[in-house]
Each structure stands twice: as structure tokens, then as C-alpha cells.
Amino acid sequence: MLAAFAAAGCGVVRPTDHEKVCPSYEAVIRPVLQTNCANCHSGANAGGGYVIGEHASTVSRSDDGTPRVAPGVVSSPFLEAARGKLPGHPAISADDLALLDNWVVACRAAPRPHDYHPIGWATSTDPLQFHGGAVRDAGYDFAECKSCHGEDLRGGKSGFDCNSCHQGENGPLACDTCHGDKTSPAPPKNLSGVRLTTALGVGAHRSHVEDGKLHRAFGCGTCHNDIKKVDDEGHYRRAGKFFPGPATVRLPSTDGGTARWDRTTATCTNVACHAPNKSDTAPTKFDPVWTSVGKDELKCGGCHGFPPSTHADNRCEVCHAPGYAGGGVDLALHLNGKVDLRGGGEQCDACHSGPGTTPFVDLKGRTADAGVQSVGAHDAHLRANKLRGPLACDACHLVPLKVDSPGHIDDAAPPATVFPPGLGGLASAQGATPVYNAANATCGSVYCHGGGVFPFVDTAPGLLRTPKWTGGPEQAACGTCHGLPPIDGSLGHTAAQTQPCTQCHGGTVSADGGIVFTSTADGGRTTKHMDGKVTGQ
After folding, report:
1. Is 97 a domain residue?
2. Could you give the CA distance from residue 172 to residue 189 in angstroms, rounded to a whole number?
3. Which of 38, 101, 258, 535 has its CA 20 to 30 A from that of 434?
4. Is the pTM of this model over 0.70?
């Protein structure tokens, strides 16, 4: 083919006979096809997906890369159909058949006669004479082309504009000249014109470069050398020399593994997108098959478990709400290389608010619905109030050191365990044995609400020893945890007591009956009231 390329010197007319006998496709051949074939092979539902119309479409390939019109071949499927030798194709007239036979065999299905190039120079399926093959054989060195057609290939001395066929901003140097099409530079088609996803050069390219249900479109540079122009280093040239392929595959690795592409098995291994967490044992497709498009190689549960093996809850939106909307995923966040939690960041308050001034937020984003157990009286405990400074989460729960610590996201029985065995701390002070009844949302035998050895003997009326978590502010008020005064007999408090609390507990209660608070170094407030000890002066 190099010889054919070199023989086409600019300004030198080759003596040929085909100009006298080869017809114009548009003027002669297309009308014949319109009369005989267009009834079936036109429009969106063209028979066999084959549209006969413009020259490029008529000489196109089948999805498996087979030429429909095989230049120079008497038994071309195109001619066999015209002869009536293919099922469902009646023979056309002898005169029309003679025209088509001459056009395919002698004229190599050319769009028009050529002055300086071989007959099949513009026939994309001609394996011997098509100019695309000649350019490839020349290592995509366009110097010869430019010597006749100009530096911009817009005509030059030849007067023929290459962009008349290669339409678009980059003309012959557009990505889709060799692979892809006008909708995308990614295959299909591949370099051999194949469109089947079972071919290595096609595979799941389109599944990656177009928005899908689980991810936003990836650029070609995600997996290959990032090419901006066709003649960039690393495309078809390496160290200045022509590189015939295959294309370099560079894949982002997952933590704890090195990404690898295996052409033999057509599989990707240890790729961050398909194996984000190798410690997760639940996924079904850590190593997807590139050529098995549409066969569940990419689905929820394939890359991470549903739920992951470290999670007990498969409601992704509970903790990862920003990435989920309307039952699907937010394409801008899903597969973005990081874990996006509800409130942002990676600390506890990404999903829950902590002690302080920030309103408590449950895992569904609710802040004010105190009638829901997951909200309840959290705010009343986490913020300073009239009875006590803020409590820390570990007063009632085991606080995990990390998100994936045992007993946290692997707990299959939400809500979170309240007063777990071994908790200790304030809730168990003075011998209290705290319990939480999720069925009716009540706490019992909690030190803070009158549990334990000393407070428990109090028999004053109006005590509320089993406050309802969702019952509102009246569940914890002066006189609900211990009497005013307590009635405990042997401890010295009686119903007839008239001395103010400050007489014995001046360090805890002020003269006006309020609780004494002091400021902390971080700007908060603390008190000796309800601190697990009996405080005097």
C-alpha cells in the first residue's frame, strides 16, 4: 500500500482507463439503489441495520467488521443480494445489475473517478487501496498529503478539500476518523470497523465515556494516555516512532492492590472503580469482564456489597445521603474516589451531631421530630440546660474509635444500642443499672433520673423514674428525679424538712434554688449537679 501512496504524486496525472468507465456514485449508482433497495434499507428500522443512501453508509461494514460491499470481489454480499441469491432479496434487472457489478468489481465501489489516486482510494472497505490504510502504513505522517492538499488539508495545489468527506472541526485529524463516531470518539467502531461489544477494541468503552446509572462519564485519559491531539506523544507515536498498538491502559488502583488489565481474559483487576474496598467480601464483580457488556458486570452490589460486608444496613442513603436521590445515585458524587457522608467530612458529626450548640441530626436528617426515637431527647442531653451541662455520647452509647469499629455500622439491630453491657460511666453511678426499653421508648434505673442506691430510696410524690425518651421537656424537671425535698428516711431528708438545699449542697444549688454552673476553658458550662457524687458545700 505504500507504493500506492507514493505513486500518487501531486500534479502527475496517472494514465488510467477507469475514468471513462467508472460512474459517479451520486449520479448513477445511488438512483439504482434508491429504486431497488431503499424500500427495505432506509430509515431508522432499515433491514439488517443497513442503510443504503450516501456513499459512506452504502459501503459501511456490518457490526462484526465484514464489508457489505467488498471492492473487487464478484461474490460480495452486496452483489449476491442484487442477484437474488440471498434470502429475501429478489434479483434486480440485468441492466441495473451490470451497473452495480461494474461499480463494485472494476471500480472498487469508488464514489467518483480519481485523477491522481487508485480507484479504491476513497472506498473505506477497500483493503488494498483505501487511503486510510496507506496513511497508517506511512505511520500517520501527513507530509505527503499536505504537499498536495495544503497544510490544513483544505485543498492546496490539488484543489480538493479533504474536509468535504471528513467534516467537523478537526477534519481528517478528528478522533472519530479512526474510532468512534460523531456522538463519541470512543468505540464502537474500533480501528477495524467492528461495532460488537464482544470485540476487545470495543468492549465497554461506551459504558465508561457516557453517563450511566451509576457513574458520570469518564474521559479517555482515565484509562489511557491523555491525548489532546492525534499526533501527541503516546498516541500512535512513542519516542518519535510509529506505534501500532495496542493502546496503553493505565488504571487507578484500589487501596491494597495494583490495578491490572489482562487482554487474555479481558478482565480488569484491583481497579478503584470496581474494587473500592478489597476488605469488603460481599461484592459479586470485583473483576469485571470488559467484553460482557449488558451481562451484569456493573450493578449495585458488584463493586461493593449491598450492603458491604462491614455494614449491616443496606439503606445507602442513611449515611451517604448526598450521593443518593430519588432512589438512584448522584452521578457527581458516586464513584468520585472518596466516601461522601451526610454532613461532609469523616468524623462522627458527618452523620450525627455531637455535643455543643449544633442541633442533633438523626441518620435521616431529622432535627426537630422529638416523637421519633432516633431524635427524641438527644438535644436535651447534648446541650447545656437548666439542670446540667452537656452530656457526651459515651454516657449512653459505646462510641466507636473508627467508623468500622465493631458494634457500629455492623450492628444489624438499629437503633444504636443504648446502655450496652460494660458501658459504666454516669448512667451507672451510685449502683444504678440503666436499661432502655425500645418498645415504649423509656429509660429505667438510670442514675441521672433517680436510679442507684441513694436516690432510689426516695419516696417523694411526683417522681418520674422511667422517663419517656420521646415525651418532651417535662420528662426531666426539678422534682422528677428526686423529691423537693427527698423523702429518704435514714438519709436525713423528710417531708417536713424546711431548710433550703443550699444549707447542705451550696456547691451545687444557689440561694434562689437554681443549679450552680461554672464556665469551662473552652467556653462551655459545667456543674457539680448530677455528676455521680453527693456534693456538699
Report:
1. yes
2. 16
3. 535
4. yes
Domain boundary among 141, 176, 207: 141
Q: What is the DSSP string of 418-459?
A: SS-TT--SGGGGGG---EEETTTTEEES-GGGT-SHHHHT--
Neighbours of 160 (CB within 10 A): 19
Sign of the Cα pseudo-torsion (423, 427, 428, 429, in order) = positive
Nearest to 77 by CA among 54, 107, 109, 124: 109
User: 81-90 pLDDT, tens per residue?
Assistant: 999 999 999 9
Classify residue 465: in a domain, yes or no.
yes
How many other CB atoms are there within 10 angstroms of residue 140's CB atom? 15
> Cα(472)–Cα(239) distance, rounded to whole angstroms?
75
Whole-number Cα distances in Å, 278 to 290, 305, 338: 20, 11, 15
- Nearest-angstrom CA–CA distance, 351 and 354: 10
* 406 vs 158, higher pLDDT: 158
Alpha-carbon span 316 to 327, nearest angstrom: 10
> What confidence tier does 454 reach under pLDDT thresholds 50, 70, 90?
low
Record the cell numbers describing residue 77, joined without a space.
Answer: 454480499
Quote the longest CA-to-CA distance of the chain: 130
Count structural domains, the chain.
2
In a domain, 534, yes or no: yes
pLDDT digits (tens, 9 = 90+) for 321-331: 778 766 788 88
Cβ atoms 400, 408 nearer than 8 A: yes
The closest alpha carbon to 342, from 359, 311, 318, belongs to 318
Half-sphere exposure of 190 (CA within 13 A, CB side): 20
What is the radius of gyration, based on Cα positions, of the chain? Answer: 40
The Cα–Cα gap between 405 and 403 comes to: 6
Residue 172: CB partners within 8 Å, gap ≥ 6? 142, 145, 153, 162, 163, 166
Coil, helix or strand at residue 328? strand
Cβ atoms within 10 Å of 372's Cβ, excluding its own: 15
486 preceded by cis ω (within 30°)?
no
Q: CB atoms < 10 A from the CB of 476, how many?
A: 21
CB 447 within 8 A of CB 429: yes
| Higher pLDDT pick, 534 / 308 | 308
Residue 468 has phi, psi (to 5 degrees) of: -90, 125
Domain boundary among 109, 141, 173: 141
* 63, part of any domain: yes
474: Cβ contacts below 8 Å, ≥ 6 apart: 480
Q: Which domain holds residue 484?
A: 355-537
Measured distance CA(471)–CA(377) in Å, rounded? 8
Calculate the alpha carbon distances from 400 to 305, 347, 363, 390, 397 in Å: 22, 11, 16, 19, 9
Number of neighbouring beta carbons within 10 Å of residue 285? 16
pLDDT digits (tens, 9 = 90+) for 270-295: 999 999 888 888 988 889 999 999 88
Q: Is 75 exposed, middle or buried (0-12, 13-18, 19+ CB in 10 A)?
A: exposed
